[in-house]
Amino acid sequence: MNAPLLDVRNVTMRFGGIVANRNVSFSVARGSVTALIGPNGAGKTTMFNCITGFYRASEGQILLNGPAAQQDIGTLITRPVTGGSHLVTRAGIARTFQNIRLFKEMSVVENLLVAQHLVTANNLVSGVFRTPAFRRAEREAVDRAYHWLGEMNLIDDANRLAGELPYGRQRRLEIARAMCTGPRLICLDEPAAGLNPSETHELSEVIQRLCKQHGQTVLVIEHDMGLVMRISDHVVVLDHGEVISDGRPEHVANDPAVIAAYLGVS
Ligand code: ATP
User: Fold this and answer.
1) pLDDT confidence of residue 71
2) Which residues of the chain have pLDDT under 50?
3) What is one term from the GO cellular component aspect held by the record (predicted)?
4) Which of 30, 92, 144, 173 has minimal Cβ neighbours within 10 Å of its Cβ?
5) What confidence tens digit (pLDDT) does each residue in 207-239 have?
6) Cα of 87 from ligand 1 centre, angstroms
7) CB-based burial of residue 108 (10 Å sphere; 0-12 exposed, 13-18 middle, 19+ buried)?
8) Is the separation of the CB atoms in 169 and 158 below 8 Å?
9) Pocket of ligand 1 contains residue 166 by CB under 6 Å
10) pLDDT of 14
11) How many CA atoms lie less than 13 Å away from 215 in the CB half-sphere?
């Protein structure tokens, strides 16, 4: 059997006396959609923050399996990072946020170019931006941006200001921006929050296409159970920081422990 792309092993995350995640273990298979679900306060976003390098787990390991060797994300991140982690992006993990974080005063396509870090203080100083290699990289970045705009059904919006897009399109733009970094794993934090039924339907098609056509591995936190059941290959349920169920969507939906957690029965 293939090694999973992501392997979360016995992760505990404490904030002082609060234990947000306790001994959490699960894995994410390559090319699959895995959903992380659970009632409010279950520890889902904290887990995402550990996986994406915003927090360093108090205990345990998070392993991203690469083609050659395993990379322990925990050893790449030596301190909590806020506002995004270049180290985790470089390791091949991209994410979107519960609250949309776009550059609203920039155009849609500019949001995707900025995400590709084409211009850094370093290459401005060194003048690398005047070289043929840089111009080639620039063309590739533009091609990549338009490719993902197409995949997210946003081509016609390329030159609009990001802040002017309807909410559902802003959500898809966030996914396009994450995909422009060429991630091995994309983590989506409540992508359907605030969407109407037709926007949710379009989102589910986009996520399924990412996975089935592009072999993209997706980890998603979501409260919309209809969407979770439609798009997921595998569901992990957290409650009070611990994994209470893990398996195929139909298994999890019928698990008495999950039903009790959602009904608030202890
Ligand atoms: P929701 O579905 O409401 O977004 P969640 O499952 O994502 O919830 P978390 O946001 O991970 O849950 O929170 C899990 C627990 O950890 C909660 O009790 C929360 O108050 C606590 N917590 C999260 N972040 C911090 C922090 N930075 N400092 C202290 N406690 C925190």
Assistant:
1) 64
2) 78-84
3) plasma membrane
4) 30
5) 999 999 999 999 999 999 999 999 999 999 999
6) 24
7) buried
8) no
9) no
10) 95
11) 4
What's CA 59's distance to the chain center, in Å? 22
Residue 114 is predicted with a pLDDT of 82
Tokens of 134: 């840089």
CA distance 241 to 140: 42
Give the DSSP letter string of 249-262. HHHHHT-HHHHHHH
Closest Cα to atom 17, ligand 1: which residue? 41
Q: DSSP per residue over 65-76, as a string? A: E-SSSEEEHHHH
Taken in order 24, 39, 46, 152, the sign of the CA dihedral is positive
The pTM is what? 0.88
Ligand 1 binding pocket includes 20 (Cβ within 6 Å):
yes
Instruction: From the CA of 46, give the closest atom in ligand 1.
Output: 11
Both tokens of 234, joined, read: 């595998």
